[in-house]
Amino acid sequence: MADTMTTMSSDTPRTFDLDRLLRPRSIAIVGASPDRASIGGGVLANLELFQYSGDLHLVSRSRDEINGRPCVKTIGDLPKGVDVVILIVPQAAIGESVTACIEREVAGVIVYSSGFAEAGEEGRQQQDELAGICRNAGIAMLGPNCMGYTNYVDGIPLTFEPVDLRGVGERSRVAIVAQSGATAANIRFAMHSREIAVSYVIATGNEAVLAAEDLIAWLIEDKHNAVVAVYVEQVKNPQKFLSVARRARELGKPIVMLHPGSSERGKEAAQSHTGALAGDHATMQAAVRNEAVALVETTDELFDVAAILARYPLPPRGEAGIVTNSGAIRGLCFDFCERVGLPIATLSPEVREELTSLVPPYVHVDNPFDIGTTGFANPGIFGTSTAAMLKDPNVGIVFLSHAGGSPSMQIKKSDAIIPVAATAEKPVILNIIGDDYPLDPTFMKAVRDSGIPFFRSPERAMRAMAVVMNYAAALAATRDRAAEGARLRYTPAAGLVPEYEGKQILADLGIRIPKGALARTADEAVKIAAEIGYPVVIKAQAAELAHKSDVGGVIVNLADETAVRAAHEEMYANIATHKPGLALDGLLIEGMARQGLEMVVGAKRDQWGPTVLVGLGGVWIEALADARLLPADISRERAIEEIRKLKAAKLLGPFRGQPARDVEAIADVVVKLGALMRSTPEIVEVDINPLVVYGEGDGVLALDALFVVR
Length: 710
Known about the structure:
Blueprint: E1 5-8, E2 13-16, H1 18-22, E3 26-30, H2 39-49, E4 55-59, E5 65-66, E6 69-72, E7 84-87, H3 94-103, E8 108-111, H4 121-137, E9 140-142, E10 148-151, E11 156-158, E12 173-178, H5 181-193, E13 198-203, H6 212-219, E14 225-231, H7 238-251, E15 255-258, H8 264-274, H9 281-290, E16 294-296, H10 299-311, E17 319-324, H11 327-340, H12 349-356, E18 369-370, H13 374-377, H14 381-391, E19 395-402, H15 407-422, E20 428-432, H16 441-450, E21 454-455, H17 458-477, E22 495-497, H18 499-509, E23 516-519, H19 522-532, E24 536-541, E25 554-558, H20 561-578, E26 586-591, E27 597-606, E28 609-616, H21 620-624, E29 627-631, H22 636-643, H23 663-679, E30 683-693, E31 700-702, E32 706-709
Parallel strand pairs: 3-4, 3-7, 4-6, 7-8, 8-9, 12-13, 12-14, 14-15, 15-16, 17-18, 17-19, 19-20, 20-21
Antiparallel strand pairs: 1-2, 5-6, 10-11, 10-13, 22-32, 23-26, 24-25, 24-26, 27-28, 27-30, 28-29, 30-31, 30-32
Helix pairs in contact: 3-4, 6-7, 10-17, 11-17, 14-15, 15-16, 19-20, 22-23
């Protein structure tokens, strides 16, 4: 494991020794107590339960000893160089206590106290001051407003909540990082209830100094950690998080993350809890999925996906193969898989033939594969059918959803399935229906000991499987990225870029724009129109005119010289009325475009980096909000796949007498804008709306272009 961890302050990077914080050989409890119901007493009781073998120092102003351990009166009485000091003091005394820790050369502190950034602006200022003190001194602070951590690997519980003594063994482990202490405990309970080993449970609270991404970076370097389960309400350093995600992917360590905030009220809740502003949730989703983070939407999915990936951290790309002994389950799987986006595989002829050989002639062979009553006479079919499904190259995950049957039948099922699953590289998921109806203890022990992800709800299993298959697809997609683009020949001035300059940028990228030019006089306008050919459109041009139509800045379908001259005069009058004093760069004269399907392709840059958006354009972008947010390095093939996932994708095919649209040309625009955003960081926003899409092979035409440059 790495010895140090670097986190970023607003000014300079600081280096902290997270080994000393999370694997301390010496600990001091400031505010120790013999009362197990108190915070200080709870921490001490946990350490004694785990039989912590390092040096343990107690600080208490009112006691000389606790449980036979001597106490000192102040932090100043501690020996120098203690690894971790737990500060159980009032919020108002935290700053003074941290200063005392600095004087004693303490490596890290844990602050449970609340009343900081989550309480309002005054608390935020106090937290920022405290963070600055720690950064300047190189003290790794966990918290404030946190519940500490439990290190199950070394037996170090630095939390006040009651924790049970658990071993970790040699099996793959789940590490837990959560900004919410209650959620951290909830994930721990879920893993332990499935007999899945937990290595670390770290509740980060307000993250004044150490953030989730710092701790994840440390955890993924432990070869025994198979998965990191993460709950965050905001990410302090998005670029570092993405870098950590890339490193986790290199190591084959999935990060499963639950990040609330997709709704407006969800954003408000995240802000009130962490005292931090929530970022753009959709942009975050696009960015983290692009780095193959398994993003989940519910706590159930967080538990279930972590359980699957703990056993199968590198699932292959593919679709679902399903084996059941219930016709009802077979029928429900079709509907539910479609609802959650879990595709059912089309079986290869070879696998279909093998499955046919396993059942009587009257059994219909398909996927989902319903073995019916065959298992009563031949229990081995539960294993042989699983093995056959695993052979299919189209299958990436196998789901076994069965009625349990008698205790003896349950054991026959596990005896048949476990040896097959033990050697499987593809995930094998087992579901015994019946909700909480008790199953045979011998069967349950065999299943738990085998590590097969086990469910009582088929719907929960399939939801989790959909996330796992999306994760597998994201892993594969990381090997399919668009190449870097060249920088622009010139970068426009900061601010809004006039349309005519923006269109020149598009033309330089190879994106088709209407024929046209900028006119500064009526005579120039007439000359340009004649060269283009009538009819034409004229548009007022100035950086301040982001929405030209609202001020009479667009006049269309001008048929001759007389109409152009009249429109020229009308245009300047409109601008003088709506924008008095605004000096126009001139008027853009363009040929009228023929009709096609209006779409929008845009891009933006924020703390998560650049992303590209594609969707229905014109007025539909606001009315229907049908758009896909894509990573800026998306490949052409992947862009085509994403465009075809639009709700209105039917409009891109032959529709009511209209030809199929040129989806490949749309994808080319997406890739070109993505390359531009990556090569030119000064550009913060692009909007091509509408992008008119013609029939297959006829390409696209950008009718408007808005660029924002910083």
